[in-house]
Amino acid sequence: QEQLMESGGGSVQAGGSLTLSCSASRLTVSNYCMAWFRQAPDKEREAVATLGPYGDTRHADSVKGRFTISKDNAKNTLYLRMNNLKAEDTAMYYCAAQFVFGACPVEVSPNFWGRGTQVTVSS
């Protein structure tokens, strides 16, 4: 069964940095539209960033210039580098994958999800 496992979450002060990792098994990240989503308490889940099989990326306006999605195909791992973290970035972060032919769609509908990793930013 395909699995995605996130790591790297934690508690940081505003202005700090974290790098989230998503290790995939029985799923090749280079063949999928990979994405990071987040969900804060009492808020809807939102897509933070996507990375397509051919390297196309999108970042939500709220994180542009601060977060960067990337992958290491050899390690079959997805990353999210988060700089200049703000209190409003506090959320559970989820790795997700959607099988696609070509680039990621504008609205990603993942086939697979990880269990999430918590990020807490204190101001």
Per-chain topology:
Blueprint: E1 3-7, E2 10-13, E3 18-25, E4 32-39, E5 46-51, E6 57-59, E7 67-72, E8 77-82, E9 91-99, E10 112-113, E11 117-122
Parallel strand pairs: 2-11
Antiparallel strand pairs: 1-3, 3-8, 4-5, 4-9, 5-6, 7-8, 9-10, 9-11
Structural commentary:
By secondary structure, the protein is mostly beta strands. 0% of the residues lie in helices and 51% in strands. It has no helices and eleven strands. The chain has strands at 3-7, 10-13, 18-25, 32-39, 46-51, 57-59, 67-72, 77-82, 91-99, 112-113, 117-122.
Mean pLDDT: 96
Put simply, the count of helices is: 0
Q: List how many beta strands DSSP finds.
A: 11
Q: Which of globular, elongated, flat, extended, rod-shaped describes the shape?
A: globular
Low-confidence stretches: none
- What does the largest sheet look like? 7 strands, mixed
End-to-end gap: 40 Å
Rg calc: 13 Å
Strand content: over 45%
Fraction of residues in helices? under 10%
Overall structural class, as computed from helix and strand content, comes to mainly beta
Strand/helix succession? EEEEEEEEEEE
Report a brief summary of the structure.
With 123 residues, the protein is mainly β.
Key phrases:
123 residues; mainly beta; 7-stranded mixed beta sheet; 0% helix; globular
